[in-house]
């Protein structure tokens, strides 16, 4: 179902790459914050009548507490004179009312097609895989702590948000020069490059972006059901498989928390146990942050159990965290996971940063 609402744009609240946040009046004194995607809608003026999807907002779900602008009936972007002449035929968000056509880096109309047509190897590119979008800035911060000049490509899968423009994190990391490029794969769209799947997204990171490191994670928002298998982060295990199949070096960023109220995510999350321990089927490295105290001991024991259960497929690596707090606090974005900042859940971000530091170790030949 879709919870439809109509309203009027009262103000522009914020802008970032590819998106605009509006204050929308619904009538009877009610108002909401709503996001509009420029690629789909253009920019709307104050006073524009808009149709909104408020389903997730009213249910208390989703990322950012935003309604989504579906359309503005009186401000429809002008039609393209000859849509058949527009390069590209990849349709994303397929067969939804907002499906959009993009130029894929790997399709025939792309100038990069000859480069990717027979590409079959990542040449031992370090590929850091994470469950949550919130791990992205932490991974990059940890990498930059030891390899500040490394070129990083972010490969966004479609387990969370489909429009990359929802992510203020990616916009800020790109603006700060922390990311060389973003690549949206599967049904996700809006990256600097578009690709059909994780495999061609990774190949584009290596051969088109010339990245030193790729980071793979779903977009903002994720789906979980409190069951062993019912969560969108299983895609992390599939990304590990893709990286290894193509001759990359998969690095498993552990999902860790010392503050999550849900016991299944305390310590080493059950998501990491399932995605890396059951879905991933190839050799991969597992960086373990050397956190102090009883929590650090618990985490090392749980990570050791994960690796031992893999029968030698997963290799544990102790990673010191000295200097990573400073690197994380220097990030050009606000660190937040499940509404918790760095000071509320340090282990979560230090785990991501440790994975980035381990990738830097791989670059140095370690």
Molecular structure report:
This protein has 366 residues and is an alpha/beta fold. It folds into two domains: 4-71, OB fold (Dihydrolipoamide Acetyltransferase, E2P) (Beta Barrel), CATH 2.40.50.140; 113-363, Rossmann fold, CATH 3.40.50. 29% of the residues lie in helices and 25% in strands. It is built from eleven helices and 17 strands. The chain has helices spanning 38-41, 55-59, 113-116, 135-146, 168-175, 198-207, 235-245, 270-279, 293-309, 324-329, 346-363, and strands at 4-16, 19-27, 30-37, 49-53, 67-71, 90-92, 100-102, 126-129, 152-157, 181-185, 193-195, 213-218, 249-252, 256-257, 267-268, 284-289, 314-319. The strands form five sheets. Strands 11-10-9-12-8-13 form a six-stranded parallel beta sheet, sandwiched between helices. The protein has a five-stranded mixed β-barrel with strand order 1-2-3-5-4. Strand 6 (90-92) and strand 7 (100-102) form a beta hairpin. Helix 4 crosses helix 11 and helix 7 (235-245) packs parallel to helix 8. The longest helix has 18 residues, at 346-363.
């Amino acid at each position: 179902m879709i919870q439809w609402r109509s309203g009027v744009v009262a103000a522009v609240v914020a802008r970032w790459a590819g998106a605009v946040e509006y204050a929308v009046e619904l009538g009877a004194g009610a108002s909401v914050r709503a996001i509009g995607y420029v690629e789909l809608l253009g920019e709307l003026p104050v006073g524009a009548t808009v149709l909104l999807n408020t389903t997730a907002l009213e249910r208390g779900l989703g990322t950012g507490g935003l309604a989504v602008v579906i359309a503005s009936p009186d401000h429809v972007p002008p039609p393209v004179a000859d849509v058949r002449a527009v390069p590209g035929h990849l349709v994303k968000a397929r067969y939804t009312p907002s499906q959009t056509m993009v130029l894929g880096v790997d399709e025939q109309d792309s100038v990069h097609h000859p480069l990717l047509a027979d590409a079959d190897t990542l040449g031992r590119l370090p590929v850091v895989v994470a469950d949550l979008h919130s791990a992205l800035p932490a991974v990059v911060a940890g990498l930059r702590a030891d390899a500040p000049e490394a070129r990083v490509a972010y490969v966004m899968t479609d387990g969370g948000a489909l429009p990359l423009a929802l992510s203020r994190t990616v916009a800020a990391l790109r603006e700060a020069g922390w990311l060389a490029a973003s690549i949206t794969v599967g049904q996700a769209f809006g990256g600097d490059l578009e690709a059909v799947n994780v495999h061609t997204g990774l190949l584009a990171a290596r051969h088109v972006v010339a990245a030193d490191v790729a980071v793979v994670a779903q977009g903002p928002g994720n789906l979980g059901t409190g069951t062993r298998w019912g969560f969108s982060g299983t895609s992390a295990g599939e990304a590990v498989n893709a990286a290894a199949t193509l001759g990359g070096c998969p690095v498993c960023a552990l999902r860790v928390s010392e503050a999550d109220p849900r016991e299944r995510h305390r310590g080493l999350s059950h998501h990491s146990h399932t995605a890396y321990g059951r879905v991933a089927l190839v050799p991969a490295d597992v960086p373990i942050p050397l956190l102090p105290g009883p929590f650090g001991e618990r985490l090392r024991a749980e990570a050791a159990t994960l690796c031992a259960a893999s029968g030698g497929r997963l290799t544990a690596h102790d990673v010191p965290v000295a200097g990573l707090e400073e690197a994380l606090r220097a990030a050009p974005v606000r660190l937040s996971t499940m509404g918790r900042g760095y000071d509320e859940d340090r282990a979560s971000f230090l785990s991501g940063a440790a994975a980035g530091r381990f990738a830097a170790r791989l670059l140095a030949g370690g």
